[in-house]
Write a structure and sequence with these properties.
By secondary structure, this protein is α/β, with parallel strands linked by helices. It starts with 12 loop residues before the first helix and ends in a 24-residue tail after the last helix. A five-stranded mixed beta sheet has the order 11-12-13-14-15. Among the domains are: 141 residues, Rossmann fold (3-Layer(aba) Sandwich), CATH 3.40.50; 109 residues, GMP Synthetase, Chain A, domain 3 (2-Layer Sandwich), CATH 3.30.300; 73 residues, Non-ribosomal Peptide Synthetase Peptidyl Carrier Protein, Chain A (Orthogonal Bundle), CATH 1.10.1200. It is elongated and about 100 Å long. The protein is built from 19 helices and 26 strands.
Length: 669
């Protein structure tokens, strides 16, 4: 029988030392124990409300509620729902701002023994309508401000509950329902490969287990204040909301879509926030705009998850935040919540451009599988799979998707979830995240993990952010838009019609030239991994939950890229012919006579196309070697002229003028 390598399931000593630094100065930390996972969220919250009735539970720009006031507000929502719908564990949609009423409504739905389905009013109407229909919610809880949208979305049989119509002075005892740890908590809709969102569900036990691990990792206590930047529609809000309210801490929601990030620093300082959590893109924008004069004496933990954390992010953390503040890089998924993390302090050395996602979390076992479903060992790339009894039950009303992503263990309570992420494990149990499996491509016989190209780009001093995608190369038909192909669920098959496109946000404008980028990458990557095109952007497009939206990246235009050498137009009929061939093969509007074919995005297979077309046009056989030795229009023209003069041509010269594209478009660089 094959002997499997077992990855370490404990934090190494140096990680434990860093984590041990993360305590509030008050020292008021109470461990979240395993037995407290076996209950409902309302039961835990009601215990906290009894312990800290007068303590501030939630504060926003417009409202403040103590734990007692929040508990009573939630109870009123619960009684209103029970009166209308009974005690069934059914979905209830919530259409509210990310404010105190939303938090009260979430707790009220749970106290009524029901499942909440948060709706984000900023979503397209069609998406909201789809979620309402798919979730089968029969009630929408809203307020006066969102009532017009709720009515617009309402269909036959859908009941609207306006929070502003509930009497705020009515008695509000705890409903005291018996709610099983197995009862469902929420349906959160995530994007799917088919374009239709899929609803991920979790039950009370799973959420409490997640909060237990989060609480004990960064020692969340009643003296802490957590800022909530995520919409309740995303799993990251689950961790922050319950991380605060199930520990007696203060929750401070801030709508960064409406407020922007310009005042986030002041908000953190004024409200004495102790724990900050966001996706890397938000932290990067926020910390990158700091002047250095800001002081964050109360901030003791920065937690980033949901996308790749770069060395640049850690440099920002080290530059702007106090020595007692630690940085945590986490890895998780909506289906299994957090399963890996890496603790960083000011002395931690990051040797690569991307930061590891780290080490094991209690009760979350990890394996890496190859394409045949067999486990791989240390320092080998495989798909990340998580084995635990605390996984999502699956996708709401989608048994087909559930069966494809989850598998049940034989004779045990643990199940396995295939994340679709690629990873590589070092011998000490530290996981390196290599991006999505569907971002892995195979081009011209080479299997490529685009995250390795992104890492090489981020190593360059001129580059702040980088994303690389594979796109269909339709350079022979310039009228066709280049659709993104690496957004599907499976590994892309070997293709010769693909090209790598790098999207870059430079530290400063005008940014590096294409030839300088290629020259720098050649010292770090093999030729087949160097992108064919580079597109400079002011900012990367983001999804609703502030992750990079790869589907929204623009197609590269067809202008000549910005090179170190100036454009020089063809000066003879031979150069005109060669430039026309290059324009067609490379899909560019114009080509200068001193432009390097490979700096324009060419590669060896395209070079053979040029050679073939030159043979047809002027009856001269170019060698591939001569092409590589003189990869410019002027150089190839000289080779052709020399062949003519030496009589090497097979037929009388026939210089054919090849039509070139006439429309001029703005260069991507």
């Amino acid at each position: 029988m094959r002997e499997f390598l077992r990855f370490p399931e404990e934090l190494p000593a140096e990680q434990k030392i860093i984590r041990a630094k993360c305590f509030h100065p008050s020292g008021l930390f109470i461990e979240f124990t395993k037995d407290e996972v076996e209950q409902s969220i309302p039961r835990r919250f009601e215990k906290i409300a009894r312990l800290y009735p007068d303590k501030l539970a939630i504060k926003t720009k417009t409202e403040e509620l103590s734990y007692d006031a929040l508990n009573r507000a939630a109870n009123r929502v619960a009684h209103a729902l029970i009166e209308r719908r009974g005690e069934a564990n059914e979905p209830i949609a919530l259409l509210l701002e990310n404010d105190a009423p939303m938090i009260a409504a979430i707790l009220g739905v749970l106290k009524a023994g029901k499942i909440y389905v948060p709706l984000d009013a900023s979503y397209p109407r069609a998406s909201l309508a789809y979620i309402l229909d798919d979730s089968a919610a029969r009630v929408v809880v809203t307020n006066t401000g969102n009532l017009p949208l709720a009515r617009e979305l309402a269909h036959s049989g859908l009941e609207l509950v306006n929070l502003d119509d509930i009497d705020g002075n009515s008695p509000a005892p705890n409903p005291d329902l018996t709610i099983s740890p197995e009862s469902l908590v929420y349906i959160l809709y995530t994007s799917g490969s088919t374009g239709k969102p899929k609803g991920v569900v979790h039950h009370h036990r799973n959420v409490l287990h997640e909060i237990m691990n989060y609480t004990n990792a960064v020692h969340i206590g009643a003296a802490d204040r957590l800022v909530l930047l995520s919409s309740p529609s995303f799993a990251d809000a689950v961790r922050t909301t319950y991380g605060a309210l199930l520990n007696g801490a203060g929750l401070y929601p801030l709508n960064i879509r409406a407020e922007g990030l310009a005042h986030l620093g002041n908000w953190l300082i004024e409200q004495r926030i102790t724990i900050y959590r966001s996706v890397p893109a938000v932290f990067r924008q926020f910390a990158g705009a700091l002047t250095g004069s800001e002081k964050f004496p109360d901030l003791r933990a920065i937690y980033s998850a949901g996308d790749t954390v770069s060395k640049h992010d850690i440099d920002l953390y080290k530059k702007h935040f106090s020595p007692h503040c630690i940085f945590v890089n986490g890895l998780g998924a909506s289906e299994c919540l957090t399963f890996r993390w890496y603790f960083i302090d000011k002395e931690t050395r990051i040797s690569r451009s991307t930061v590891p996602v780290g080490h094991a979390i209690e009760d979350m076992k990890l394996h890496l599988l190859d394409d045949d479903g067999k486990r791989v060992g240390f320092d080998q790339v495989g798909e990340v799979t998580v084995k635990s009894r605390y996984l999502s039950p699956g996708y709401w009303r989608r048994p087909d998707l559930t069966a494809a992503a989850f598998s049940d263990a034989k004779g045990g309570s643990e199940r396995t979830y295939r994340t679709g992420d690629l990873g590589r494990m070092s011998s000490d149990g530290c996981l390196e995240h290599l991006g999505r499996k569907d971002y892995q491509v195979k081009i011209r016989g080479h299997r490529i993990e685009v995250i390795e190209i992104e890492a090489a780009l981020l190593d360059l001093d001129t580059i702040k952010e980088a994303v690389v995608v594979a796109r269909e190369d339709d350079s022979g038909d310039p009228s066709t838009e280049l659709p993104s192909i690496n957004s599907g669920p499976e590994l892309v098959e070997d293709r010769t019609d693909l090209r790598l496109v790098a999207y870059l946000v430079p530290h400063e404008r005008p940014g590096p030239t294409v030839d300088s980028l290629r020259h720098a990458l050649r010292t770090r990557l093999p030729d087949y991994m160097i992108p064919s095109a580079f597109v400079l952007l002011d900012a990367l497009p983001l999804t609703q939950n502030r992750k990079v939206d790869r589907r929204a990246l623009p197609a590269p235009d067809r202008g000549r890229p910005e090179l170190g050498n100036p454009f020089v137009a063809p000066r003879s009929s031979i150069e005109e012919m060669i430039a026309g061939i290059w324009s067609q093969v490379l899909g560019l509007e114009r080509v200068g006579v001193h432009d390097n074919f490979f700096d324009l995005g060419g590669h060896s297979l395209l070079a053979t196309q040029v050679i073939s077309r030159v043979r047809e046009a002027c009856r001269i056989e170019l060698s591939l070697r001569s092409f590589f030795e003189t990869p410019t229009v002027a150089g190839i023209a000289d080779v052709i002229q020399q062949a003519r003069e030496s009589g090497a041509e097979n037929l009388p010269p026939k210089i054919a003028r090849v039509p070139r594209q006439s429309q001029r478009v703005k260069s991507p660089l």
